[in-house]
Prior knowledge:
By secondary structure, the protein is mainly alpha-helical.
Amino acid sequence: MSIWDTLFGGGQGQAASDMQSNINQGIDWFNKYFGQGQDNLNPFIQQGSDPSKTIGDWMSGYNQSPYAKLMTKQGQDAINNAAAISGQLGGYQNKTQDAQLATDIGNKDLQNYLQNIMGEQNFGLNAANSSNQFTQNMAPLLFQLLTGRGAAQGAGDVANASIFSNIAKLIGNFF
Length: 175
């Protein structure tokens, strides 16, 4: 508070300065937290802009699971044993059944892989969306809190200056 405000002005200058400082801090916090929520969503927004690239990225990490390999081997062994008993091992129908079994198991394995990836992506998207909603709800609350703090501090400055002003006037009356 300036001496002039303290003695005669009622503290309005200091009150305005304190309020503006808190408002500026509130604006900074608002922008910081509001922007954080959007930053959490950006990777998911970018994935949605090019679904072919997203699926391609997901598929680049796919390898057939050990379980699918085991099931394919066991199934083909069973088909080949049955074909050998009937004397058709290596024949057209035997090879067709082997290929069909491998395709079916491979497709199911790939489908499970994609479901797992999409489940993880969905979990991440839900978490990012919740974070976005939280930060966007918190930003205005923080701004209101700091604005209210600035108003209270400013009111206190005015009250303090008013006390000093009244004492100065009282002293002035004695002279």
